[in-house]
């Protein structure tokens, strides 16, 4: 059952990745595509693929609301549907409005990422890694919102009875990407201050 569920998503994501790589190879003017685009595209495709495979595995192997202890007293796999953003933020917003809101926010994030890619000319590994992680995570959660109207969360860390809100791999990628963005902007300001 798991393989049957994963196969169409895997094929779709590998087709998207192949198309991106083909576009890179056949870029207009036969100039090579800058490494920053390659890094962002490949990283976002990997995040998207891992996110969707793990969510399909959870859907196929756990019942909604089920909890399985992985490390008792610290880490569980759960199957919950999150109507809101990260950690349940805006979960009380009305259904259709919430879905359109999050689709719009994701669209704005994608536009901002494309803008940053096109306008930033310095070599900044942290920035481009951050953009790839955020893009892959945003698209992973967007697929859930379009498909289900909410997001599948399954990672549950806790100490005893004190639980951190459940999250998924897309949330991890977005959070790590946000930290890398802060590091990138800090390094840029520090570099600018040192060169004055």
Name the descriptors.
alpha+beta; 5 helices; 196 residues; 65% helix; 4-stranded antiparallel beta sheet; 4 strands
Describe this structure as you would to a colleague.
The structure is a single chain. The protein is α+β, with helices and mostly antiparallel strands. The protein has one domain (2-195). It is built from 5 helices and 4 strands, in the order ααββααββα. The protein has a 4-stranded antiparallel β-sheet with strand order 1-2-3-4. Helix 2 (35-61) packs parallel to helix 4 (125-148) and helix 3 runs antiparallel to helix 4 (125-148).
In short:
The longest helix has 27 residues, at 35-61. It is built from five helices and four strands; from the N terminus they run H-H-E-E-H-H-E-E-H. It has 196 residues and is of the alpha+beta class.
Number of domains in the coordinates? 1
Number of helices: 5
The outline comes out as globular
Helix share, percent: 55-70%
Strand content: 5-15%
Strand order of the largest sheet: 1-2-3-4
The first-to-last residue Cα distance is: 61 Å
- Radius of gyration, taken over Cα atoms and rounded to an integer in Å: 19 Å
Order of helices and strands: HHEEHHEEH
* Low-confidence region ranges: none
For the biggest sheet, the summary is:
4 strands, antiparallel
The total count of strands amounts to: 4
Query: What structural class do the secondary elements suggest?
Result: alpha+beta
């Amino acid at each position: 059952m798991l393989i049957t569920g994963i196969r169409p998503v895997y094929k779709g994501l590998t087709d998207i990745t192949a198309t991106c790589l083909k576009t890179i190879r056949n870029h207009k003017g036969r100039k090579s595509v800058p490494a920053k685009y390659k890094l962002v595209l490949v990283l976002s495709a990997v995040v998207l693929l891992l996110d969707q495979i793990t969510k399909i595995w959870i859907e196929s192997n756990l019942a909604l609301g089920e909890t399985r202890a992985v490390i008792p007293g610290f880490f569980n796999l759960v199957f919950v549907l999150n109507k809101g953003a990260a950690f349940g933020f805006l979960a009380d917003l009305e259904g259709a409005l919430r879905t359109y809101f999050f689709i719009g926010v994701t669209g704005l994030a994608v536009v901002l990422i494309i803008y940053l890619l096109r306008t930033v000319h310095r070599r900044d590994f942290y920035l481009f890694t951050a953009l790839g992680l955020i893009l892959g995570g945003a698209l992973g959660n967007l697929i859930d919102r379009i498909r289900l109207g909410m997001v599948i969360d399954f990672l549950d860390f806790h100490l005893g009875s004190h639980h951190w809100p459940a999250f998924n791999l897309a949330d991890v990628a977005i959070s790590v990407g946000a930290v890398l963005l802060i590091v990138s902007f800090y390094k840029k300001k520090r570099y600018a201050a040192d060169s004055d």
